[in-house]
Every structure is written in C-alpha cells, then in structure tokens.
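Reopening closed ticket. The problem is back. First fold of the pair:
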Amino acid sequence: MLIGGTDTTSILVEWALAELMKNPSIMRKVQFEVREALKWKKNVDHNDIQNLKYLKLIVKETLRLHPPGPLAIPRESIEEIAINGYVIPNKRIILMNLYAMGRDPEYWRDTEKFIPNRFNNYVDNDVDDVKMIKGSSNVPMEFLGFGFGKRVCPGMLFATASSELTLARLLYHFDWKLPNGMNPEDLDMIEGFGAAATRKN
C-alpha cells in the first residue's frame, strides 16, 4: 500500500507542477497563498497546509484532469441491474473510467482547461475527503479521483496529505519556470500508457 501510494502521489505532484507551469497566473496565485501563509518559516509541515484552500483546489483539479489511476479498481456486480438502459448481469467485472468521467462535458464546463476554482463550492462547504469515504450525499459523484464509499482507495488521506505537503514545500522554496524561454502552450501534456497515467515525456 505504501509503494502504491508513493507512486501515485509523485505522479499527482508531477502533473500539478506541469499544469501550474502551463498556467503561470494560477502558479502565481497559489505561490502567493503558500508564501503569505508560511512567511519566514524554514520548514513546512503538515499543520501548515491546513488553511491553504487554493492549494487544495489545485490538487482536486489535478485529480480531475489527471487521475493517477485512470481506471478504477475492477468491481464485480453482485446482482443484475439496469443503469440508464444498460443491463449489467450478475457476476460481471465492471471498470469505471475515471479519466473520462473527469472530462465529461455533461458535468464539467471547459473540460480540458485547468480551472481549480471549479472546486470552490466543495472546499467552502466543507465537502472534504473524509466525507468522500463516508459516502456523503454532498460529494459530487462525477469526481471520484479515489473512488467512493466503503470501496474508496485506502491510501486516499495519505496521498492527499503527502501531495499537498510536497506541493507546498516546492512552491514555498522554489520559483518554477519553463526552460529556455519556452511558451507555456508548448509544454507537452501527453499521458503515458499504463496502469498509472504518468506524463509520457
């Protein structure tokens, strides 16, 4: 579990930094939040990131666009059921495509754009990761970066805390920019093929 959690967390952090470098105004905003909140600290720890609301939006939006595990862990149906006119027989293996759900225009506007503020309502209304585990009805079902309910990813809280802390430290201590005057729109954002959705290049 620890190995799986660190791999997916590093993928999430890498995608978040790539999206921030591709969107310099968002990078400036989150870096300002982090640096204002942690002013003069030499070390950043878990307690310091609790009030970094915009950073939390960055992590959620990165998960929507780039879920480290694009296909949820397979499930087996326990009875025949009809969903939206499709009949799923008993004892069938079912896969959920989290990647496609995060880009479904029926639920998300500007699906290919990195817009952290789309999650503002969920943070402001205290729809947090613990409520996702418990299966709160307030949680948007179209956002299932870690799964949902009693079958949620067991490493969700670890991954969220680790990625937020890592991003806070990287944004607090370093200035990030693309090399050799590269334009943000030229940054390669192609996903690699595999069980985990890493950056291809």
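Second fold of the pair, where the issue appears:
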Amino acid sequence: MRLKDKVAVVTGGGSGFGEGIAKAYAGQGASVIVADISQAGGQRVADQIVEAGGRARFVRADVSRRADMDGLLAAALAHFGAMHIMVNNAGTTHRNRPMLEVDEAEFDRIFAINVKSIYLSAQVFVPHFRRVGGGAFINIASTAGIRPRPGLTWYNSSKGAVITMSKSMAGELGPDRIRVNCVNPVISATGLLAEFMGVPDTPENRQKFVATIPMGRFSTPQDIANACLYLGSDEAEFVTGVCIEVDGGRCV
C-alpha cells in the first residue's frame, strides 16, 4: 500500500480526474476527503470508495471560499485524525472562443476556482503542515499552461499561474519539509471536453485533438491518478517543484 496511513483531501473529487485520484488513493491505503461542490457526485464517489473497502468522507466545498477550505482541514482531522496530502484538482474553463468574447464574470470565476483556490489552500494547510513537520501539495495544472492553444487564453493563463505558484511555493516551503508539485494533463474525455474543444463532442472533432498527441489518445483519470500516487507517496519524498506532463508527448 503506497499511501498506507496517509490522509488526503482531493478537491473536485466528484468526477473526472478528481474521482480517479480519490479512488486510486483509497485503493492504495489513504483515507480520503472527497471534496466537491456537487453533493451528488461527491457523495457517489465517497460511497463507492467505502463500498470497495476504503475510507472516505464527502465534504461539500466551494474551493474559492476560505470558510469551505477551513472546513476541509477540519473534516480531515475530525474524521481521520491527520492530514498529509492536499490535492488541488478542482478547476473550470471558459468555452474555447476568441479571448475578447470571454466576459469579466467568466474570467473572475476561472481565476477564483483555478488560482485563488491554491492561495486559500496554502493559507489553511501550510500552518497545519508546519505544525506536524511536513506535508504535500499536488496541484493539477495543465499542458495549457506551457503549450497554450488559441481560444483558451484566460484558462491557459490560469494554469500558467498554477505552475508558477507551485514552483515558488516549493522553493519557499522546502525548509518546512512541505513538498509542492504539479501534474499537467493533456485534454481528456471528462465533463469539460466540449468546452475545451469549442465544438460539439463528435468522433471527428475528437480526432482533430488526438492528432496533436504523439501517443494517439486523450489522457484518462487513471493516467493522472498514477502520477498523483507517486507524488503523494514516500517514494517522492525528495521531489518538489516539478511538473509532470501526463500528455502522451503533447508538449515535446
């Protein structure tokens, strides 16, 4: 069990990458707080983990709110007695379209969920990790942050911010034995796929995007979970400030 006796919070855990990460973590021995703004999705994932013999609790959370982030730490300590790994996975995007067509409300929402959430998680979890002698952040960014496509300018920018924040956090928090790393997925057949493509989700449209990935397929939640398993485990105890591109060669 690679995560035996670890306690993790996974935001956006009710679907997509977050669901994959939460289930993989539980399968490797971690106790998991499944955090999601969706009651139905988050509770479903937590219930499925428990039914499979794992340990999980659902906590509803809007990651752009400090009070909700406080609640995630409180829930981890109350239910499982510890907190070791914070996976900042929750994210959103605007529909793929020209940059000037994205309105201010959409822009604010993207940066609140994708970027402010990491600031808030640091405000809440860094003091705890310092008290207990260490911990780990894993921030789910995107290949869009290093190889941006037209039409997703503000989303791309938010993920670029996540990458830079993660590296800077790693440098500052290293002396506290707090590790901070990123995983950069390429496009995946998750709930936001049509938004990322900006066109209907058809086999023909998918193929246009698959054609840009040397290994010839989208990423999957299990692909991302595998990277997060490594970064959350003691195998990565000397790894901090890195971004792992899980992208089938998209960024080569």
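Update: turned out to be a display glitch only; the data is intact. Residues 7-238 form a domain with the Rossmann fold fold (CATH 3.40.50.720). The first helix runs from residue 16 to 27. Please close again.
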